[in-house]
Amino acid sequence: MKIAVLGAGSWGTVFAKVLADAGGDVTVWGRRAELVEAINDRHENPDYLPDVRLPDRLTATTEAAEALDGATYVMLAVPAQTLRPGLAEWRPLLPADAVLVSLMKGIELRTCKRMSEVIREVADVPEERVAVITGPNLAREIVMEQPSAAAVACVDEATAQKLQLACMTPYFRAYTNADVIGCELGGAVKNVIALAVGIAVGMGMGDNVSALLMTRGLAEIARLGAALGADQHTFAGLAGMGDLVATCSSPLSRNRTFGENLGRGMSLEEVVKATRQTAEGVKSCDAILELARRHHVEMPITEAIVAVMHGGLSPADAGRLLMSRTPKPERYGV
């Protein structure tokens, strides 16, 4: 089975390793010739995963046509906000029957569309040929072959099951899920909640605050999911609680680390400059809040993060704003 991975960043490279270890012949597409050369000649990605040896059956190319030729699965592992122009460029090269798989966790700005919706629109493919892989997947731990798992979501059960087998290894388990909406929302919104947790940690706050933000953050995810037709059970699983806990708790999380730096007193500009890889929550929080407003869903933590990231609100004032909200029952609907 030939598999194309479009994107040679940290997560794209790690998941390419998983696919190769599961028996696939994997070709990674990357823009930079020197990085592609390092993957092919030294079997490593020195920019994102130095000193990690990649499988021999994993190769790389700067030519998208070469990566896509004959691919059964096309894994999309680019920053969420670059998906649309990138996919428009690759569309003429896509194999006719390939399954397009989103490894991204974001919501598109302006359109407020999930990544699978962008894929279906730009590539003009039916939803049965679009899948999502998501879950508590910290790249550094997986590349060291520590046990991990993910949800493989597709509306077509047979497609999900075949993709599940394509990425099963002794250290990586995949579980199928028919709820594409819920899996994508869990993966996107948890990044915003991780920013909030990181800010609190950076400000020196303790575990009670982290637990509060994670729990109320999960409530925000579930409310938005209910409004969009997601299965509420999804948010108790790998794509919901699992991903949320990992991203909010781990120092390996880009979004939590970004928030920590803000909480310690760095300016937004300083943190952006110091951040080498994309923190999707910073980019997607605006679109998530707009999506919530379109569906009349209250998301106070997300609203506070948008105000910090794009409205000039200080982290301290954001905390005071959240703690001074009017009393409510723990469970309330849309």
From TrEMBL:
Return the broad EC class. Answer: oxidoreductase
Q: Localized where? A: Cytoplasm
Where along the chain is the active site annotated? K190
- Spell out the reaction equation it catalyses: sn-glycerol 3-phosphate + NADP(+) = dihydroxyacetone phosphate + NADPH + H(+); sn-glycerol 3-phosphate + NAD(+) = dihydroxyacetone phosphate + NADH + H(+)
| Top-level lineage group | Bacteria
Task: Provide the binding site for sn-glycerol 3-phosphate.
Answer: K105, G135, K190, D243, S253, R254, N255
Q: What is its EC number?
A: 1.1.1.94
Looking up InterPro entries in the UniProt record yields: 6-PGluconate_DH-like_C_sf, 6PGD_dom2, G3P_DH_NAD-dep, G3P_DH_NAD-dep_C, G3P_DH_NAD-dep_N, NAD(P)-bd_dom_sf
What does the UniProt keyword field contain? Cytoplasm, Lipid biosynthesis, Lipid metabolism, NAD, NADP, Nucleotide-binding, Oxidoreductase, Phospholipid biosynthesis, Phospholipid metabolism
This protein's pathway reads:
Membrane lipid metabolism; glycerophospholipid metabolism
Residue ranges constituting the Glycerol-3-phosphate dehydrogenase NAD-dependent N-terminal domain according to the UniProt record = 2-159
Gene3D superfamilies, sorted: N-(1-d-carboxylethyl)-l-norvaline Dehydrogenase, domain 2 (1.10.1040.10), NAD(P)-binding Rossmann-like Domain (3.40.50.720)
The cross-references to Pfam families, in alphabetical order and at most eight, read:
NAD_Gly3P_dh_C, NAD_Gly3P_dh_N
UniProt-annotated binding residues for NADPH: S10, W11, R31, R32, Y48, K105, A139, R254, E280
Q: Which SUPFAM superfamilies match?
A: 6-phosphogluconate dehydrogenase C-terminal domain-like (SSF48179), NAD(P)-binding Rossmann-fold domains (SSF51735)
Name all Glycerol-3-phosphate dehydrogenase NAD-dependent C-terminal domain ranges.
179-318
By its UniProt entry, which HAMAP family does this protein fall under?
A: NAD_Glyc3P_dehydrog (MF_00394)
This molecule's function is given as:
Catalyzes the reduction of the glycolytic intermediate dihydroxyacetone phosphate (DHAP) to sn-glycerol 3-phosphate (G3P), the key precursor for phospholipid synthesis.
Give the family from UniProt. Answer: Belongs to the NAD-dependent glycerol-3-phosphate dehydrogenase family.
- PANTHER family reported for this sequence: GLYCEROL-3-PHOSPHATE DEHYDROGENASE, GLYCEROL-3-PHOSPHATE DEHYDROGENASE [NAD(+)] 2, CHLOROPLASTIC
Q: What is this protein called?
A: Glycerol-3-phosphate dehydrogenase [NAD(P)+]
State the organism's lineage. Bacteria, Bacillati, Actinomycetota, Actinomycetes, Streptosporangiales
